[in-house]
Amino acid sequence: MERSALQLRLIGETVEIAKASGVEVWLRGGWAMDFFIGEATRDHEDIDWFAWADDVSALTDGLLRSGSELLPGPPADQQLDFCKQDVESSFALLDKDRFGRVVVAGGPWAGEPWPEGMLDAPPGRVGPLRCRIISPRAQIEIKRMMPVWVPGRPRRRKDAEDITRLEAALRGQGTRRT
Q1: How many C-beta atoms surround the C-beta of residue 89 within 10 A?
Q2: pLDDT per position as a tens digit, 99-114
Q3: Percent of the chain with pLDDT over 70
Q4: Is 39 in a helix, a strand, or coil?
Q5: pLDDT for the residue numbered 155
Q6: 51 pLDDT higher than 90
Q7: CA–CA separation, 28 vs 49, rounded Å?
Q8: What is the pTM of this model?
Q9: How far, in Å, CA of 70 to CA of 65, rounded?
């Protein structure tokens, strides 16, 4: 679990950098699930985030100052990828449409809405570390729909396992979370 400890430290660092830069970020993917559940459930390859496209400059400046390296990757209007201490952090970029809905910021799906209420979840927590997360219902929808939205992307076993964990945590939410 050394890798998990390092990733948790980098999540905390990113939260602080975002806060100091006046930038909002939300965990997505496996770490968002873990922060909703309240513990690390599996090893994670990377750290996935959402951020507003308008905040790219401030976020990039803060991460570069902290020692992160900007990686080549998808077009910058869609996602930014960074690496620090051999841990990749990917920031998928968000925008709002004329109706105020959260949408994909760039690329071939620019303007397509993300699940309603995706950014409305309370912060999650692992140990003493708190972080904004996307809502568990949005996490489930994204994990279910990704192979449909991105043809050619196979359904992954870890996504099915994450959906099962999230659904179980939602069923038990009233008795465990405060």
Answers
A1: 23
A2: 999 999 998 889 999 9
A3: 94
A4: coil
A5: 76
A6: yes
A7: 5
A8: 0.89
A9: 11
Can you tell me whether residue 155 is helix, strand or coil? coil
Of 137, 152, 138, 166, which Cα lies nearest the Cα of 37?
A: 166
> Diameter of the chain by CA atoms?
44
**Residue 150's pLDDT is what?**
65
The pairing of beta strand 69-71 with beta strand 124-126: unpaired
DSSP, collapsed to helix, strand or coil, labels residue 26 as: strand
CB atoms inside a 10 Å sphere around CB 154: 8
CB 111 within 8 A of CB 104: yes
- Helix then strand then coil, % of the chain, to nearest 5: 45, 20, 35
DSSP SS3 for 6: helix
Residue 149 predicted with pLDDT over 80: no
Tokens found for residue 57: 């400059």
Which domains are present in the chain?
2-135 (3.30.460.40)
If you average pLDDT over every residue of the chain, what do you get?
91
Residue found by looking up tokens 């927590």 in the block: 125
Q: Are strands 87-96 and 47-52 parallel, antiparallel or unpaired?
A: parallel
H helical segments located in 38-156: 56-65, 136-149
Q: Of the candidates 13, 106, 109, which has an alpha carbon nearest to the alpha carbon of residue 62? A: 13
- The upper half-sphere exposure of residue 105, i.e. CA atoms within 13 Å in the direction of its Cβ, equals 19
